[in-house]
Amino acid sequence: MIIFAVKDSAGKIGPAIMKGHAYFAGHYSEFGVDQSMKNNDEPGACKSYNGLGILWYFGMCFPSTCSSTDLMKVLKPDNGTTSFPNPVCQLQKSAENIRELDAGFWITVSIMGGIVLVCIVSGVLDFYFADAEGQIAPIHCMRFFSMCWVVMCHLTAWNIPVIANLEDFLELTRDITTEVVINGFFSVDTFYFMGGVLLTFKNYERNPKATNAPSTWVMFYVHRVLRLSPAFYMVVIFYTFVLKQMLRDTPYSMIPTDNCYETWWVELLYLHNFIDHDKLCLGYSWYLASDMQMYPFTSLFIIPMAIKPIFGFIVAAAVFIISTGVNIALVYYYHRPANQGFFGPKDPEMTNFDNYNMYMYDSPLIRCQIYIIGLIVGWFLQTRKKLRINWVRI
Q1: 19, 97, 201, 284 — which has fewest CB within 10 A?
Q2: What pLDDT, on the 0 to 100 scale, is given for residue 33?
Q3: Which of 289, 380, 357, 363 is nearest to 322 (CA)?
Q4: Three-state DSSP class for 35?
């Protein structure tokens, strides 16, 4: 029975290998092997394939007393000399990185219970008593489609490692209709635009004197922190202390690296797009850090604009030109692509791509361009409500 259980829990080679199927999960531990089945001590073994980092993944049954570290010391020691020839590149035991229930788990659950109760009550009150006057209705439509765009792209990206016909998928990327997914990296720009629009649209409801009052700017920053941080903080601590406990002994527990126990506090400071960037906890939360870092500097635009619009436009143009110049310089010097797409040919002269996210994709200095456009559009919508745009006849 023991032999049968071992064989039953191990992953089996399935169909579509020639189409890129490389993930054969078992019931417990799994290990990744070199795609060409080279011994792991040979030159070039355990390297990425065509930039996709493809390995063969098999589920295996090992004694529960053996840790991943213990097994890798035998299969792939640090000194590079293996006990016996094998193609194993990495190994991860199920749930090995998940801690037992601790104080962080129970504190997080208690706080979230209180927040859920407050949300229910406030949602009911908002439904019956909220005033929709003064809103920009099209923003809701833009937000909906932008969110769908982001979700679709993330689902596609996270399915690539386990897809059974990767070759067919890569072939689809040649079709122009898939451009919306391949270039989904630009979808986040719509949120920067909406953030800029709403910021100036709400601030210029007041007269210039009220806009530049010290008390206004104190609340400008306090309101931002109080409005954004509670929900974000709860997501961080929920993911760090609770979620993984709920998914113990599932395929999710096979994730080999999780830096949340080490760097969750950096995310609470909104600095994770620069500090310990290679140890991100919630990688997709880089947007909040970038947005929060741009927010304090919007006063350089709003205050001059309230005094005299031309001053604000000059500041906006200056920052826009600086951002564009830095962007062009980085692309020219490092031969970087327009986005971080994983498909298609790469510039053979491209260097330092490991820092692409930190210096370009996540950087507020680069991202501020679309934010500035949003700030200007919001100002026009609030101060030029009688503006009429005529149809263009062709």
Answers
A1: 284
A2: 43
A3: 363
A4: coil
The pLDDT confidence band at residue 313, using thresholds 50, 70 and 90, is very high
Query: So what's the pLDDT on residue 269?
Result: 92
CB 338 within 8 A of CB 157: no
Using alpha carbons only, give the angle 10, 13, 19 rounded to the nearest 5 degrees. Answer: 145
pLDDT tens sequence across 199-223: 888 877 666 677 777 888 888 899 8
Please tell me the total number of residues recorded for the chain in this structure: 394
- What pLDDT, on the 0 to 100 scale, is given for residue 83? 62
User: Got the DSSP string for 233-295?
Assistant: HHHHHHIIIIIHHHTTTSGGGG-S---HHHHHHHHHTT-TTTTTGGG-SSGGGHHHHHHHHHG
- Amino acid symbol at 331: V
Report strand pairing: 30-33 vs 88-92.
antiparallel
Q: What mean pLDDT is reported for the chain?
A: 76
Q: Which residue has the higher pLDDT, 72 or 194?
A: 194
pLDDT at 284 > cutoff 80: yes
Name every residue whose Cβ is closer than 8 Å to that of residue 19 and which is 6 or more positions away in sequence: 164, 165, 166, 167, 168
Q: How far apart are CA 10 and CA 1, in angstroms?
A: 14
- Positive/negative CA dihedral, 286, 287, 292, 297: positive
Half-sphere exposure of residue 100: CA atoms within 13 angstroms, side-chain side: 0
Among the listed residues 249, 252, 289, the one whose alpha carbon sits nearest the alpha carbon of residue 270: 289
Tell me the C-alpha to C-alpha distance, in Å, between residue 366 and each of 261, 302, 317, 357: 30, 20, 14, 11
The number of beta carbons lying within 10 Å of the beta carbon of residue 338 is 10
Burial class (CB in 10 A: 0-12, 13-18, 19+), 185: middle
